[in-house]
Design brief:
The complex is a heterodimer. Chain A is an all-alpha fold. Chain A contains 16 helices and no strands. Chain B is an alpha/beta fold. In chain B, the strands form two sheets. Chain B has a six-stranded mixed beta sheet with strand order 6-7-8-3-9-10, sandwiched between helices. The chains are: A mainly alpha, B alpha/beta.
Chain lengths: ~350, ~250
């Protein structure tokens, strides 16, 4: 092999640096998202919707793609964040960034408490527990009409300009910029986390819990932490929805949202952080397009696409970005060749 | 001198079946101790009890004199107990480098660091590289584990256990499934393990046991059947009858 001359530790350090490096497609994605502000000024609302769904999916990917925890109730955190942001803006401070932080904190606290329910048990137990938690919250929101507006939703949420400077305009331009900045910041943080020793340990717990324990890893704390972070993310996503629409509908806690975000990850792929973003784009555009051409049957097509994706294998059709140069896939192909050399 | 690893009257029952029957075992510091016995003798159950995968019904396990019977697996690892698995337990698409970064990072308590990029954990990376080199995995450190030949995977399996810097290492059939031509490499690395590491070897291959171990315990039907030096065990007619006889 060519790198025989290099010392093992130089090779190691080179490999580690490469693994954490920014990929061309990542940078391109963010540049395109920014360019959208100028390219598609008439589509700000749907772009905001995509951005919020993407953040929600990134949140689920942290627990599903990295820690291997399945959830059918992830919207509990999204909905909680949405309501907290709404109530906080109505009754206390109407400045959105403050509201975002408060919503994230409350949702994170709830995530921390409920994380202990997903520590043990099979995938099925986790599916049911998370589903149950979301149902509980949905019913609470419905009953506590004095606080949440009940079935009518929470209206009259006045949001003042962001940091007192940027007003939410009618075209949704500032709303999109605001949501995009939040998504970028939180994705960068998540990216840093998954490329850390802690992130590595999460991946290890997902891949082989038996061996992970035998390396001295206690899964409990690691899972509690990532579940809490994911809850903060989902809560912030929910708060973004409230702030960009000035309204909270009981729909934010509805089951279909938990299912949708799972679908987004199935479309986009899990465990590489951008699956939620690609998935959100494809899902929203597809839904929009289908609901225009077949307003009554679009669910049918979504269902069909879901089945095809699962049957054909997500790996093959959604890891398209992996074929781009410098990507993980290209690295793996190179590695496979190297493996043959070793043999 | 305190034994490196000790069990006292260890019992494990599954329903009406006693898989571990009153096992009292003592392994001295630095020993090369082999644990043998026919299939179904309870070797795997014993290992699972020692590592905390199973909880005993009664009895005690002591590591360096400290009782560990009720500790979870990861806490036992932290106290210096490590093992390899008879069937590789690796991290599929991780590279050997990833796996080693994980193992060494965890030993140094870096596993909770969520803000430091792996590439900046230089001390861990250097140690990982050195260990990979020692285990003849340096050339393959960037290759996904599943793509490695089985012998190399076996080396990684052992290297991961060593990365935890154990005081006591349980080797569960280290050469199992390794093709003949790669076998020598695995066994020579097992022989090169530092002398201060206490090794308990669970093995079927009698040639390996006799060449490697200084003491042998024989398990049969969940109970300790005989214990002694290699010379004593290899001459014991009863051991031959229940175990060696069958094997020959």
């Amino acid at each position: 092999m060519s790198d025989k001359a290099l010392s093992a530790s130089e090779t190691a350090s080179g490999l580690l640096k490469r693994a954490g490096r920014w990929q061309i497609w990542e940078i391109a994605l963010w540049l395109i998202a920014i360019a959208m502000i100028f390219v598609l000024p008439s589509k700000m609302l749907i772009l905001t919707e995509i951005t919020i769904l993407a953040l929600f999916a990134v949140s689920l990917d942290l627990i599903l793609g990295y820690a291997g925890i399945v959830s059918l109730g992830h919207t509990a955190f999204f909905g909680l964040g949405a309501y907290v942001a709404g109530i906080f803006a109505r009754d206390y401070v109407s400045e959105p960034v403050t509201g975002l932080l408060v919503a994230g904190a409350v949702s994170g606290l709830f995530g921390f408490v409920t994380s202990f329910l997903v520590l043990r048990g099979s995938d099925l137990t986790r599916l049911m527990t998370t589903f149950g938690v979301a149902m509980l919250l949905a019913e609470l929101a419905n009953q506590a009409a004095w606080l949440t507006g009940g079935a009518d939703g929470l209206s009259g949420v006045m949001i003042t300009p962001i940091l007192g400077l940027f007003e939410f305009d009618l075209w949704g331009r500032n709303g999109y910029i605001y949501a995009l900045v939040v998504l970028m910041v939180l994705t960068f943080i998540a990216r840093r986390i998954v490329n850390s020793p802690y992130g590595l340990s999460l991946k290890a717990i997902k891949r082989n819990p038996v061996r992970a324990a035998m390396l001295g890893i206690s899964p409990t704390r690691r899972i509690v932490v990532v579940y809490t972070i994911a809850a903060v993310y989902a809560g912030i996503a929910g708060a973004l929805l409230t702030q960009t629409t000035s309204f909270v509908s009981p729909d934010v806690l509805a089951f279909h949202r938990s299912a949708d975000v799972l679908l987004v990850l199935v479309i986009g792929g899990t465990g590489y952080l951008y699956g939620g973003i690609f998935g959100a784009i494809i899902f929203t555009v597809l839904r929009d397009w289908l609901s225009v051409i077949t307003p009554q049957y679009w669910m049918f097509w979504i269902g069909l696409i879901l089945i095809i994706i699962v049957m054909v294998g997500r790996e093959r059709i959604t890891r398209w970005q992996a074929f781009l140069p410098g990507s993980a896939r290209a690295e793996r192909l190179k590695a496979r060749k190297a493996a043959e050399d070793v043999r | 001198m305190t034994a490196a690893l000790e069990t006292r009257n260890l019992v494990k029952r599954f329903g009406g079946f006693t898989a571990t029957n009153d096992v009292t075992l003592s392994v001295r510091q630095g020993a090369r101790h082999a644990l043998i016995g026919p299939n179904g003798a309870g070797k795997t159950t014993l290992i699972n009890l020692l590592t905390g995968v199973l909880a005993p019904n009664s009895g005690q396990i002591l590591l360096g004199g400290e009782e560990i019977s009720r500790l979870p697996t990861h806490a036992r690892v932290g106290r210096g107990l490590s093992r390899t698995f008879q069937i590789n337990q690796l991290f599929g698409d991780f590279t050997p480098l990833d796996s080693m970064m994980l193992a060494i990072g965890e030993r140094q308590g870096h596993g909770g660091m969520a803000w430091r990029p792996l590439s900046r954990d230089r001390a861990v990376a250097d140690e990982a590289a050195a260990l990979l080199k020692r285990f003849r995995l340096a050339d393959a450190m960037g290759v996904a584990t599943t793509l490695l030949p089985y012998g190399k995977q076996r080396l990684l399996e052992i290297a991961l256990a060593i990365a935890a810097k154990p005081k006591v290492l349980l080797l569960d059939e280290p050469a199992a499934g390794v093709p003949e031509e790669e076998r020598h490499e695995v066994l020579s690395l097992v022989r090169e393990l530092p002398a201060d590491v206490t090794v308990v070897l669970i093995e079927h291959d009698m040639d390996l046991v006799f060449s490697f171990a200084d003491r042998i315990s024989v398990l049969a039907q969940g109970a300790l059947f005989a214990e002694g030096t290699v010379a004593e065990i290899s001459k014991d007619p009863q051991v031959k009858a229940i175990y060696l006889g069958e094997d020959a």
